[in-house]
């Protein structure tokens, strides 16, 4: 007898570990770690960890909305003028709102087929570089970018040493597109084969 188990697909997303980053001597911002763990066919990597700031979430929502006009996208936590990055309650409220936003988006099969979403969740490319990659203006494909970002981030001792050496470059907010993302011979296909979403409440 052969038992075939159909594993239910899942995507776990956590928005956590808010950190204050200095932009220059006057300005600071908070970024959040986005952790993904999934067995979904839609994802090139099954686990990943990146850091994103609020305005990158705003960019993502605008791009997803312009590509999926008929879908009512979930709202981001409101950008209040009273937001105080030194107030742990404010920061945690925003973190929760960002997590709920991603959880809702990841339940939609159409949004899951958008390459920008995958680059946002699984690479540290800037919005400009994500746009360039999606529109074919980079030497690397979406799958290359995700694959190479993951291999840069494996936490082995050798790579930790390399990261310490290269840390001074990585401190600026705008990531450069020359982050070792050359073409890779790994032909991973990225994005969903639009499988019908199972309607579950």
TrEMBL record:
GO cellular component: endosome
GO biological process: cilium assembly; intracellular protein transport; vesicle organization
Compartment annotation: Cytoplasm; Endomembrane system; Endosome
One Pfam family, short name: PX
Membrane topology summary: Peripheral membrane protein
TM regions (residue ranges): none
Primary subcellular site in the record, as a coarse category: cytoplasm
GO function terms (MF aspect): phosphatidylinositol phosphate binding
Domain of life: Eukaryota
Gene: Snx10
Compositionally biased intervals (Basic and acidic residues): 157-170
InterPro entries attached to this UniProt entry: PX_dom, PX_dom_sf, SNX10/11
Region annotation Disordered: where it falls in the sequence: 157-201
Annotated PANTHER family: PX DOMAIN-CONTAINING PROTEIN, SORTING NEXIN-10
Alphabetic keyword roster: Cytoplasm, Endosome, Lipid-binding, Membrane, Protein transport, Transport
SMART domains in the cross-refs: PX
Family from the record: Belongs to the sorting nexin family.
Record-annotated PX domain positions: 10-127
Name by which UniProt lists this protein: SNX10 protein
Compositional bias (Low complexity): 175-189
